[in-house]
Specification:
binds adenosine monophosphate, alpha/beta, globular, binds methylmalonyl-coenzyme A
């Protein structure tokens, strides 16, 4: 019975006794071990009553079992909904409620807080800990290591990824089997992945980059991964000699460059370094080549679209650009006001269309219609231009977004919390350059007349509501916000005023 995503990424490896996941402690999991774990989970999930199309919300630490749960959802036709481990209970409640998840899988440490929420929302709850233990593994342990794969078509939903927006309300991006599979297959070809590849995997597996790019590409190629729980400089340096390739956000590469152990010798055997999720400074690209002799391959994607463009594997990887549209992806630069395609070289908004582009936002037809045109073009909110050789340069954003260490942060979400605090009249949240994270969050507050907001209490309130990576690293109090003649807050003026706040001394 066909299930394109499961068959092409996982099923093809059935019975293989070659390593799929190599763990930092030296142990390894073969494809067969991995698929057996996945099948047991799939049996457990279906016996618990889950049916094709049901959503499974997952907030767990990175582990082989976390990945097996993704495979299990694919095999059972369930919609996998991975969630950042940094999200607070407040944030999680929204995702569980909005998605109508039938099952929540969380770390044992969160069960007390999440169980009442799951119950209120009518979802079951299971635990999966970083070491693979928990009620999910216990329940699945005695079940069959084979599972009759559930029939699906390419247009069926495979995953939801939540992405925030300018209104501060997160939207569930609905990704189909075809979206994920077409992109993985394209990237395998473009980046020349084969079964000989060993990918150093230090990204989280709850976002596109670590899950649908790094993992799916390795699976589609039949390669293996050195599966690190997180980015740890010492561990990366220790395991680089066993790898052929690595994918990371720019912070990975700037941190490596700051370490003198990261040398040409250490990387001479490597085939490929890929960067994405945030702009890689041309300066980092150049320093990396000087140090290692490798040119980082930069690509550009989004949660809603997976990967859109890539620098070439063969041919010039041009610093400061994101390369060319991937095969099958149409990309145009348009006038943000009229939507008309602009002449070659002009700066405008980037729109993309292709098999990679998502199906829309879950139960948000107006938001979908505002960003996804009827002819299939998705308005990315990024600003860019083609250069004379057809390379795409991303020059800015037409959306109020901060990217810190590869994580997206929508200022509105933070402003809503800040505006709600005692003695705060209004606020503006901006991103300023940061040497490690690329950008970081700064909150500007205007107090009510003759009042003095308590900044410590405000930080506490932020902590209660929002994931740590979204917290302002600095709060600034101003008498008023700069505004243009239309009354709109001029965030560019604020960004300019505080641009050197985190500059190295
Ligand atoms: C951790 N912290 C952060 C971040 N990460 N703060 C701001 N931005 C971050 N990205 C917090 C920690 O909670 C900690 O808080 C403090 O900052 C310092 O943590 P540190 O130990 O330095 O951080 P880390 O644990 O080493 O993590 C940094 C990291 C990580 C390795 C850059 O954030 C990471 O793996 N980022 C990758 C994100 C990613 O996968 N993005 C892809 C999205 P405290 O002060 O309490 O100690 S997919 C996407 O964007 C599209 C589709 C695409 O094109 O790929
Ligand atoms: P997300 O919402 O997490 O999917 O992040 C997508 C956004 O990350 C894009 O809209 C871009 O603004 C940004 N992005 C991803 N890759 C790159 C890149 N190589 N250069 C610049 N920005 C990027």
């Amino acid at each position: 019975m066909p299930n394109p995503l499961f068959d092409s990424l996982f099923g093809i490896h059935a019975g293989k006794t070659t390593s799929f996941l190599r763990l930092p402690d030296g142990s390894a999991l073969t494809h067969r071990d991995f698929l057996e774990k996945a099948a047991k989970f799939a049996n457990f999930l279906t016996q618990a009553g889950l049916k094709a199309g049901d959503r499974v919300a997952v907030q767990v630490q990175k582990s082989p079992e976390a990945l097996a749960l993704y495979a299990a959802c694919a095999q059972a036709g369930l919609v996998f909904l991975p969630l950042n481990t940094a999200y607070t209970v407040d944030e999680l409640s929204y995702f569980i409620e909005n998605s109508g998840a039938s099952l929540v899988v969380c770390d044992g440490k969160s069960i007390q807080e999440l169980a009442p929420i799951a119950e209120r929302l009518g979802a079951n709850i299971e635990t999966l800990n970083a070491d693979g233990s928990g009620s999910l593994s216990e329940g699945a342990g005695g079940l069959s290591p084979t599972f009759a794969t559930v029939d699906r078509t390419g247009s069926d939903l495979a995953a939801f990824l939540y992405t925030s927006g300018t209104t501060g309300r997160s939207k569930g991006a609905m990704l189909t089997q075809d979206n994920l599979l077409s992109n993985a297959e394209t990237l395998v070809k473009e980046w020349r992945f084969t079964e000989k590849d060993v990918l150093l995997h230090a990204l989280p597996v709850f976002h596109t980059h670590g899950l649908f790019v790094a993992t799916n590409v390795t699976l589609a190629a039949g390669g293996s991964m050195i599966f690190m729980p997180k980015f740890d400089l010492d561990e990366i340096i220790a395991h680089l000699p066993e790898a052929t390739s690595m994918m990371g956000v720019p912070t990975f590469y700037t941190r490596l460059l700051h370490d003198q152990r990261f040398t040409k010798e250490l990387t001479s055997h490597m085939r490929l370094f890929v960067s994405g999720s945030a702009p890689l400074l041309a300066e980092t690209h150049v320093l990396f080549e000087q140090r290692t002799g490798h040119r980082i391959l930069e690509r550009y994607g989004m949660t809603e679209t997976n990967m859109n463009t890539s620098n070439p594997y063969d041919g010039e990887r041009r610093a400061g650009t994101v390369g060319f549209p991937l095969p099958g992806v149409d990309l145009k630069i348009t006038d943000p006001e009229s939507g008309a395609t602009l002449p070659q070289g002009d700066i405008g908004q980037i729109e993309v269309r292709g098999p990679n582009v998502f199906k829309g936002y879950w139960q948000m037809p107006e938001k979908t219609a505002a960003e996804l045109r009827e002819d299939g073009f998705f308005i990315t909110g990024d600003l860019g231009r083609f250069d004379d050789d057809g390379y795409i340069h991303i020059v800015g954003r037409n959306k109020d977004l901060i990217i810190s260490g590869g994580y997206n942060i929508y200022p509105k979400e933070i402003e809503i919390v800040l505006d709600d605090q005692p003695y705060v009249l209004e606020s503006a949240v901006i991103g300023v350059p940061h040497p490690d994270f690329g950008e970081t969050v700064v909150g500007v507050l205007v107090p009510e007349k003759d009042a003095t907001p308590d900044l410590d209490a405000i930080q506490e309130a932020v902590t209660a509501h929002l994931a740590r990576f979204k917290h302002p690293r600095k709060l600034i109090v101003l008498d008023e916000l700069p505004r243009n003649t239309m009354g709109k807050v001029q965030k560019n003026v604020l960004r300019d005023a505080y641009k050197d706040m985190f500059a190295p001394a």
